[in-house]
């Protein structure tokens, strides 16, 4: 299974609560650039996504919207609307072991390619867990790390920063 773990784009701190923080103008621009890269990457490798997991926090949902905008700008043709699953477990304090169990279930169901959009510290903790602490991926905003997860041990195969 290939898993693209992405940290949301740059977000404003001017919000009534953490879940309500929205992307900045710069965050939107960078996420669209990442979407263009991801769309080209998936198209060139003829990869179809099986599931997109996204945090319910506003900045993560806006990241997903703008990733899709970027992907469509490079003619990524897959319709991803029916692949999106908003999940409370992938918020900043989510449990990476629960997410690992769900990813294992998805893999057993035949999923091969998953995009996950979340937050620190979860994206770091999850990348550590999936690679058996063999990776040390730093996740500035908008970063995407691709992990090839076979069996119980994954390997980081690509990291894309803006």
From TrEMBL:
- One GO MF term, please? protein histidine phosphatase activity
Do you know which SUPFAM superfamilies this protein is assigned to? Answer: Phosphoglycerate mutase-like (SSF53254)
Give the matching Gene3D superfamilies.
Answer: Phosphoglycerate mutase-like (3.40.50.1240)
> InterPro entries from the entry?
His_Pase_superF_clade-1, His_PPase_superfam, PG/BPGM_mutase_AS, SixA
Q: What are the record's GO terms for cellular component?
A: cytoplasm
Q: Which organism is it from?
A: Mannheimia pernigra
Superkingdom to which the source organism belongs:
Bacteria
What is the name of this protein?
A: Phosphohistidine phosphatase SixA
Pfam families associated with the record: His_Phos_1
């Amino acid at each position: 299974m290939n898993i693209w773990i992405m940290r949301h784009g740059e977000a404003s701190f001017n919000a009534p609560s953490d879940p309500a923080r929205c992307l900045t103008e710069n965050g939107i621009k960078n996420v669209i650039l990442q979407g263009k890269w991801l769309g080209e990457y998936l198209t060139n490798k003829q990869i179809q996504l099986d599931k997109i997991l996204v945090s319910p926090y506003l900045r993560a949902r806006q990241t997903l919207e703008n990733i899709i905008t970027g992907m469509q700008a490079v003619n990524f043709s897959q319709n991803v609307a029916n692949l999106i699953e908003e999940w409370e477990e992938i918020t900043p304090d989510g449990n990476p072991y629960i997410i690992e169990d769900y990813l294992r279930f998805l893999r057993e169901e035949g999923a091969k390619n998953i995009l996950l959009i979340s937050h620190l510290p979860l994206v770091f903790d999850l990348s550590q867990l999936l690679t058996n602490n063999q990776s040390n991926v730093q996740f500035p905003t908008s970063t995407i790390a691709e992990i090839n997860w076979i069996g119980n041990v994954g390997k980081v195969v690509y990291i894309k920063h803006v």
